[in-house]
Amino acid sequence: MAEAYIVGAVRTAGGRKGGKLAEWHPADLAGHVLDALLERTGTDPEAVEDVILGCVVQIGQQAVNVARNAVLASRLPQSVPGTTIDRQCGSSQQALHFAAQAVMSGAMDIVIAGGVESMSRVPIGLSTALPAQNGFGTYKSPAMEAKYPGVKFSQFTGAEMMARKYDLSREQLDAYSYDSHRKAIAATQAGSFAEEIVPVDVSLADGTTVRHAVDEGIRFDASLEAMRAVKLLHEDGRVTAASSSQICDGASACLVVNERGLASLGVTPRARIHHMSVMGHDPVIMLEAPIPATQRALRKAGMTIDDIDLFEVNEAFAPVPLAWLRETGADPAKLNVHGGAIALGHPLGSSGTKLMTTLLHALERRGGRYGLQTMCEGGGLANVTIIERL
Questions:
Q1: What does pLDDT average to in each consecutive run of 10 residues of the chain (390 residues)?
Q2: Which of 38, 252, 255, 261 is deepest in the core (most CB within 10 A)?
Q3: pLDDT digits 0-9 by tens, 228-266
Q4: CA dihedral 333, 337, 342, 345 (to 10 degrees)
């Protein structure tokens, strides 16, 4: 079987809700990233055989197959197809897996995987709220209700359940979240994100244009004292907005090829996809799946946690990476070394390839060999990807 290689990986800097990226239509934002990926890898647009994008809230401006619309908004020819997938927060990580599977099978040689989410223009929850408000029902079926009576599936509830199950205090969650901002600040100031970020031109109200190239969610004036003052999400809870991922606009993409693709493009691979898997787990606590998924992935790959040089575990809520650290025995110094979604933002459908982009560049900067990425996903799911830097 052929191998799957990553030859390029890019992302936009995150935009805060109503921030610098809010004026960009999501199809145009994704198209802009596709163009940048082609340019940076020197790829002939005609050579791309498919575009697979993750997107969670597929309604309004993100409806009607936003991946195909992004292709039509880019300089890719209209002969290039596109498809949009939803595995909740892991959507673009799954897009990467599908792209890798396509080139490993030999069905295709050159595929783009990525994701987009404009949470300013298409708010989270819109795809469930609108149908319910207009009499079209909800996603929870009678059979699901019989199996999970009275359960309202909620990531916020899951985050509190995680904090209690793993005995993580408010103080621990705040300290971790403060650290996320500190690492993101240090990475930004050191230029660690410079090569992975695609600058985006933004028109301001006064008619001037600025270049957006710094993650907007980072609080450069962050303080632990300020975080401790943030109101709890639940009166008797432990999680606050400060220990949760930020609403974010963004797009990201990776170019995935096999040996034939490498030869036809005349490029050098940057990483090989060593392992990829996905696992279902308890949909009520919901956010715990990365723990057993990581343990199973390492067993299947014939590796131990100490074989991995860097980890990217999505910071949906602070209890997730903290519980993951405790249960896997991973070295905290290898985790989210440039900060995570608490500081940088979580653009839902884009986060998977966003994290992969950061992981690949961090491995290259630090000379590491193996990187592991995982993230919790709605419905109690988790994808795991292990790459080998080449």
A1: 96 97 97 98 98 98 98 98 98 98 98 98 91 91 96 96 98 98 98 98 88 97 95 94 98 98 97 98 98 98 98 98 98 98 98 98 98 98 98
A2: 252
A3: 999 999 989 999 999 999 999 999 999 999 999 999 999
A4: -160
> Is position 275 annotated as part of the catalytic site?
no
Tokens 């191998």 map to which residue?
Answer: 3
Residue 248 designated active-site: no
pTM comes to 0.97
Catalytic residue among 181, 281, 338, 346: 346
Handedness of CA 350, 93, 103, 258 (dihedral sign): positive
Catalytic: 376?
A: yes
Q: Pick the catalytic residue from 55, 248, 254, 376.
A: 376
| Identified catalytic residue from 55, 89, 248, 254 | 89
Asked if residue 54 lies in contact with residue 92, where contact means CB atoms within 8 angstroms, the answer is yes
What's the token pair of residue 234?
């639940």
Among the listed residues 304, 286, 169, 305, the one whose alpha carbon sits nearest the alpha carbon of residue 232: 169
Q: What is the 3-state secondary structure (H, E, C) of the chain?
A: CCCCEEEEEEECCCEECCCCCCCCCHHHHHHHHHHHHHHHHCCCHHHCCEEEEECCCCCHHHCCCHHHHHHHHCCCCCCCCEEEECECECHHHHHHHHHHHHHHHCCCCEEEEEEEEECCCCCCCHHHHHHHHCCCCCCCCHHHHHHCCCCCCCHHHHHHHHHHHCCCCHHHHHHHHHHHHHHHHHHHHCCCCCCCECCEEEECCCCCEEEECCCCCCCCCCCHHHHHCCCECCCCCCCEHHHECCEEEEEEEEEEECHHHHHHHCCCCCEEEEEEEEEECCCCCCCCCHHHHHHHHHHHHCCCHHHCCEEEECCCECHHHHHHHHHHCCCHHHECCCCCHHHHCECHHHHHHHHHHHHHHHHHHHCCCEEEEEEEECCCEEEEEEEEEC
Q: What's the pLDDT score for residue 131?
A: 87
